[in-house]
Amino acid sequence: MKHTLVALAVLGLGASAVHAQEVVKLGTAAPLTGTQSHLGKDIENGVRLAIEEYNAKGVTLGGKKVKFEVQAEDDQADPKTATTVAQRLVDSGVKGVIGHLNSGASIPASRIYNEGGIPQVSPASTNPKLTQQNFKATFRTIANDVQQGLAIGKYAATKLGTKIALIDDRTAYGQGLADEVEKAVKASGGKLVAREFTSDKATDFLSILTRIKAQNPEVIVYSGMDTQAGPMLKQIKQLGLNVKFITGDGACTGEVIKLAGDAITGNTFCTQPGLPLDKMPGGKNFNERFKKRFNADVQIYAPYSYDATSAIIEAMKAANSSDPAKYAASIAKVNFPGVIGTVAFDAKGDIKDGAVTVYQFKAGKWETAN
């Protein structure tokens, strides 16, 4: 009988030790299927790496050891699906969300998170409207399209040629970025000879490009994703259009190089918010850890989603709580050395001092342009 009581006492201690560890769920949402899944998976993997590393170090909140877990949802790069996914995350009790990829998904989803009192930090959505809604807990770790559009338009008009044609995919991201490019082209002394639009599902651009060809542009700017930019470059070559081509971060990927094949040349340029991975303060070390964990290369957004996750967890640590009502205000005050550089937000929720880098296709890969 004594032995039984001792055994029960030991079992009881074990059970209370288990209960002392609190599970804190963080959500992430991005396209995990379809043509943009490589970018969505990049975001998810950045979140997972951050959570695994914080769990390994050990985090205590309110006197309890915390174990972070990820709930990853597929928003299919679709605004309607994004709101469904956002509601699911809120209903399932996540304490914060890292996502979405596309501005067209992030903006409608942000309303759901705001109503549910759940902080959202996007590692990829660049449309300025996301942080102009006066939601107190909506942030991003990446430069916005005002900064990126200015960089594209100015570089195109001052370095590539003054006669510029502009194409966008009519998503919140594509159209928003193109609007900023148009302003910057004109402010930099360039002339917009054509503005056309397609969709983020299209694969045939010949009629658009034929109309553009008649205007004799020196530069085509495409504002959209890599799944359209690759075929577009092939069709530019097919039509014998001798132009320089520049695009934003949605197509500044390794995937566009594969999709374009021999149609991508040294006349192809792109931009990414932030610094090149090898120029990020924590980039080299992050890349090594990421490759070791996932056996995959960083696409674009993993460092930003890693730092977005860290911003949420650091805010929880500062508030000593995982309760969104208690820690949300602390996100606005974070200031720590991240992979991408110093992570700190301005009054709107935008990353402070968001850099933009221009790249040129050289020797089979993207290299920093002059």
TrEMBL record:
<dbReference type="Pfam" id="PF13458">
    <property type="entry name" value="Peripla_BP_6"/>
</dbReference>
<dbReference type="InterPro" id="IPR028082">
    <property type="entry name" value="Peripla_BP_I"/>
</dbReference>
<keyword id="KW-0732">Signal</keyword>
<protein>
    <submittedName>
        <fullName>Branched-chain amino acid ABC transporter substrate-binding protein</fullName>
    </submittedName>
</protein>
<dbReference type="InterPro" id="IPR028081">
    <property type="entry name" value="Leu-bd"/>
</dbReference>
<feature type="domain" description="Leucine-binding protein">
    <location>
        <begin position="24"/>
        <end position="364"/>
    </location>
</feature>
<comment type="similarity">
    <text>Belongs to the leucine-binding protein family.</text>
</comment>
<feature type="signal peptide">
    <location>
        <begin position="1"/>
        <end position="20"/>
    </location>
</feature>
